[in-house]
Amino acid sequence: MDPLGNLVDWIAVYGIFGLFAIGLAERFLPALPSYGVLVAIGIAADGAVWSPHTAVIATTVGSFMGALGLYLLVRAVGRKGSVTLLYSVGSRWVGLSQSRIDWILSSLRARERALTILSQLIPTVRLISPIAAGLLGTNTLRIVSGMAVGIVLWNGLFISAGYLAVLVIPGINSSALALKILVLLVVTEVPTAMVWRLQRRHSMRLNPGASKR
């Protein structure tokens, strides 16, 4: 059984548009494991349907458009409605508690420039960061450039992983490889979150007024 492989077979029917559509869909369907789909797309990037470069570009454009749409929506809705939207998306779509969301907001506010990129490389956080950026009033040019870089790195990493994996192990099962990568992501995310939290506490000690902004 290889459900991700079957999904990629469906994407291949629509070619580049299918890649764009799946990139866009992962922004609004948290149940869709973007890393797994990207790995499967990389496995299928043998040049017959799409090349690795085409896959990275098309999925990045789709994901970027979805993230930018969320950011602009929040800017248009305003702060009050955006807070409600953020808590709703975070709890229902991504499974984040309100306290976790508040922590993400305070972290993004403290190191807005660097974390605009980094937030796109952390599972779950990457899905709500455009909403958070809109809520915090992050400069449009900064959020556009930061999201673009972060999404290229995220998509490029997993598509490349799938492409290299199939070169080493022809016929590799996409779903099995995605499951192994999920374990790696979880193991990596825990220390990353701890470092992020420690940096935030250090910043608050150096600048006590930051926590009140």
UniProtKB/TrEMBL annotation:
A Pfam family per the record: VTT_dom
Domain VTT: 33-163
Sequence intervals crossing the membrane: 6-25, 32-50, 56-74, 151-172, 178-196
Protein name as catalogued: VTT domain-containing protein
Keyword annotations of the record: Cell membrane, Membrane, Transmembrane, Transmembrane helix
Its membrane topology: Multi-pass membrane protein
Location in the cell: Cell membrane
Xref: InterPro entries: DedA_domain, VTT_dom
Keyword Cell membrane applies: yes
Keyword Signal appears in the UniProt entry: no
